[in-house]
Amino acid sequence: VRSLTETVAIATESFAMSAAPAASVPSPQLSLSSPGLEARQEEDHVSPAATPALSLSAISIQELVAMSPELDTYCITKRVKEVLTDNNLGQRLFGETVLGLTQGSVSDLLARPKPWQKLSLKGREPFVRMQLWLNDPHSVDRLRNMKRMEKKASLKRRSTVIPDGESPVPPPTSPAPAAVSPAPTGLAKKARVVLAPEEKEALKRAYEEEPYPSQQTIEMLAAQLGLRTSTVINWFHNYRSRIRREHFIEEMQQKSPGLEGSCTPRMANDGAVDDAGLSPDRPRSTEEQRLNVEADQCQVLQFESYSLPPASIKQEMVEEEASGICFRNEGQEGLPLQTLHTQVIEVGSGSGSGSEGAYLDEGVKGSSPKPEAEGGKGPLVSPFPSASPSCLPISGETPPLPPPLVPGASTHSPLPPGAGPGTRGSSPLAQGSDGALAMGWKEGSVRKALRDEVKAANLNSIINRLEKAASRDDSPDWEF
DNA sequence: TTTCAGTCAATAAT
DNA sequence: ATTATTGACTGAAA
C-alpha cells in the first residue's frame, strides 16, 4: 500500500522542477496538518480497481507548497505568459480558474515575481499552482473550454431576451431588484483616491529622506498635500514594498544565465513523437514543449482541478457541457465556497477525443462573490460551511479545506514557517528546469508500472493533439 | 501597534 | 477587451 509519504513523493516529483530532494526524508511533517482527512484514503477504496489510479487527492496544495522544492518563479511566470499568449487565453480567466486570484493580481505576479526564497508560504502558493498547471497536459484545453463556455453563456445571456423580437425594452437587463444607481444604501462608494503626479513626487522625495517617517512627519505630509494621513501611510507601505520588490527582480536577473533556454523545458530526448513539422496553424510550440516535458518526466498524475473559488465564475457556465467539469453554484450571494481539489486521474484510458471525457475532474465552485454587497453590509463572508461536494467523484477531499480565496478566509497552513522545506537544505541543484528532475526518490515497482501507463497515455494524448491540430476549429474565436 | 505580504478592485493605459 | 497600475484592506509577525 502506498504510503502517504510515497504519494507525496510522487506528487512532488510530478512537479518536475528543479529540485533535489535532498536526501532526507521529506515527509514527516505533512501528516500533521490535517489530521484526519487524508491519511486514510489510501487505496483501499473502491472500485477504481484495476487501474492504478493514484489518488493523492489527499494532499492539499498547502502541503504541496510546504514540501515543494525551490521553484524558479521567474521561469514559471515566463512560461505561463507564453502559454497564455500562445493560446489566446487571458489572465482574468487563468487567474480566476487556476490561481484563484483576480486579473490585477495575476498581472502583477506575472510581471514581477518575487524570488522563491523571499516568498512566504502563502506567496508561494500561486507559483506552485502555476507549476502544476504547466505540468498538466490538459490545462490549456480546459481553459479553452472554459473560455468557450463563457463566451457562449454571455452570448446566450445577451440574446435571451431578444429572441422573439419583442421587448425592445432594455429594462430587462439587470433585474429590477438591484437597480438604481446611486441611491441605494445611500452610501456612494468612496471614490478612489488618485494621487496627482506632483503629490507622488513629493512623497517620493520625502521617502528618500525618511523611508520610515514618524507619525509626525506623516501628518505633516498629509496636511501639506491635503491628503488623509491614512493615505500617506498606505502610500509609504506600498512604496516600500514595491521598491523592495523591484530590488528583488534586479537581483534575480542579475544572476540569471540570461539565456533563453533556461526556462524552457526543452528536452532533448526522444525523438519519438516530436513535432514532425506540424504546426498547422500557429505556433503552438509551447504546447508541444509541454508535451515533451510530460512525456519525459513522467508526470504521472495530474493534479487537477484546482478549482477555484474565487470569485467569479459566472454561474452561467454552470450547465453546459463542461466536459467533466462540474460547477456548483450555490446560489446567491456571496457564498464563496470553494474547494480545491487535487485529484488524480487515471491515466490509462485514453483521453479520448479532445477533452471530452477523458479525465474526470470536477470542481466545485463557489459563485458570486463579488456581486456587490449591497444589502447588508459589508462583512460578507461566509463561513461557508458546507462543502459541497457534489460532484466529486472520488477523493475524499477535504471539505475543511480552507478556501483560498475570498475574504477573510485565508488558508493557513499549519506548518511552521521554517518547517516546510526544511529538508532541502539549500540549493537544490538543478533548477535548470530542464527537466533535470532529480530523482531522488526511490522508484518502486508501482511507479514503474505507472510510468508505463503514462507512456501509453502520453501517446494517446499526443495522437489526440495531432488530430486536433489537424482539424482545429480553433478559430480565432472572433466575432460572429 | 506598526510593518509586511498578499490581494482586491477601481481605473488607466494599451 | 485585455493588461497594467496602484490606493486600500486583511491577517500575520514583530
UniProtKB/TrEMBL annotation:
Superkingdom field: Eukaryota
- Composition bias type Low complexity, residue spans: 23-35
Annotated DNA-binding ranges?
A: 188-247
Quote the subcellular location field of this record: Nucleus
Where is the segment annotated Disordered?
Answer: 23-44, 151-184, 268-287, 347-436
Q: Where is the Homeobox domain?
A: 186-246
Domain CUT residues, every copy: 62-149
In the record, the note on similarity to other proteins reads: Belongs to the CUT homeobox family.
Q: What is this protein called?
A: Homeobox protein cut-like
Organism per entry: Eptatretus burgeri
**Residues included from the entire protein:** 748 to 1227 of 1227
